[in-house]
Amino acid sequence: MTLTTLRASAISAVAAIDAKTPAHRDRAVDGLRAVALLAVPTGHWLLGGFTLDDHGALHNASPLSAFGFFAPVSWVLQMLGVFFLVGGYASVLSYRRARERGTSTARWLHGRLARLSRPVLGVTAVWAALILVLYALGVSGTTLRTGSTLVIQPLWFVGIYTVITALTPYCIRASDRLGAWAAAPLLGSVAAVDFLRYGPFASAMPSWLSLLNLLPGWLFAYQLGVSWGGKRLGKRGAWVLLVGGTTLFAMLLLVLHYPASMVGVPGEARTNSHPPSLLVLALAAAQSGAAILLRERIGRMLRRPALWAPVVVINLSAMTILCWHQTAMLTAAVPASFAGAIPGLTTAPDSPVWIAARLAWLPLFAALLVLIGRRARALETPWTQVGRYRRALAGLLAAGFTVFALGLA
């Protein structure tokens, strides 16, 4: 196939995607979701590295341990606030359309939760079988444990997103009653827990206290999205979020000395993301405000078919990207571990050479993700089309992998 033919096929495909898009489709919201989705693998691929021990086994490492100036990169790549914002926006519209058609809340929830859980079951079941194959091929148990930890790491997001999606009807009621202010108690709750675990009485606080931030911390941006979708949050509120979030973010960093990185750094006692601290909510508020203010401009930009087509593809592949991007990186790194020290893959992320090499590896990771994703989409088949025994086997394998990845076995 000639280059001219390929170009003509691409132009035709782009035009077809644009033509099939309904006129009422909110392209800006889809564009924001696509950017937030791509930030997840980009962040994990840039801010996660490996080291080799004397036995050739892989261990997790992070360039943030050596390069403090990398922390602002994590501010840009930590876009889960935007993801939850557009999730709340889309959910309120979907829920209200479903109720207008006479669909019950339970049935609406079942449909949305099934779309979230099937890909998770698929990736964990595949990895349960893959571990046995890789071990038989000579991959060390340490490397398999490292890889399993990376694979299961992004799946916490799917779990918390599932819980938050189930709370959508309550979020709508809160927004109808309080507008955008419905998110304020969530901010206050996280602030209170942060004060207890980092304030003058921190030494007397139990270690599990931080878990109280898990739900309100991620529900905050989702609640803002529900208010936005319900037309209870407009440009004036967006300016308040942008200015207020930016001011709070600066104060937490410069005055209260919160860790600068938005992701965990090996060896650091405090982390902002697991579970979320007040700094994460400040960033989410600023990002949400900016997203709402830029909505019309983004929408106009995405009227161009060449820009819109990739957004559609990314949104259709959302769960595939979230569930399989770490597998793509491991597909390159695990074989490389047998070859010894390879810059950007198996060498310690502690030099500018590593940064340059890792950037060069990113296109390969992306290509591997595309190849894996084409096969993985088959694992997202609706359960009504899968036999009972196959579902039971997949569930058993997924449970076994989870136990192994979490270090419980």
Note the topology:
Elements: H1 3-20, H2 27-47, E1 49-52, E2 58-61, H3 71-77, H4 80-100, H5 105-136, H6 141-152, H7 155-166, H8 168-178, H9 184-198, H10 214-229, H11 235-254, H12 278-301, H13 305-316, H14 318-337, H15 352-376, H16 388-405
Helix pairs in contact: 1-13, 2-3, 2-4, 2-12, 2-13, 2-14, 4-10, 4-12, 5-6, 5-7, 5-14, 5-16, 6-14, 6-16, 7-10, 9-10, 10-12, 11-12, 14-15
Keywords, separated by commas or semicolons:
two-stranded antiparallel ribbon; 409 residues; mainly alpha; 69% helix; single chain
Give a structural overview.
The structure is a single chain. The chain has 409 residues and is an all-alpha fold. It has one domain (26-405). It contains 16 helices and two strands. It has helices at residues 3-20, 27-47, 71-77, 80-100, 105-136, 141-152, 155-166, 168-178, 184-198, 214-229, 235-254, 278-301, 305-316, 318-337, 352-376, 388-405; strands at residues 49-52, 58-61. A two-stranded antiparallel sheet has the order 1-2. A hairpin with a 5-residue loop joins strand 1 and strand 2 (58-61). The radius of gyration is 22 Å and the shape is globular. The chain starts with a helix and ends with a helix. The model has no long low-confidence stretch (mean pLDDT 89).
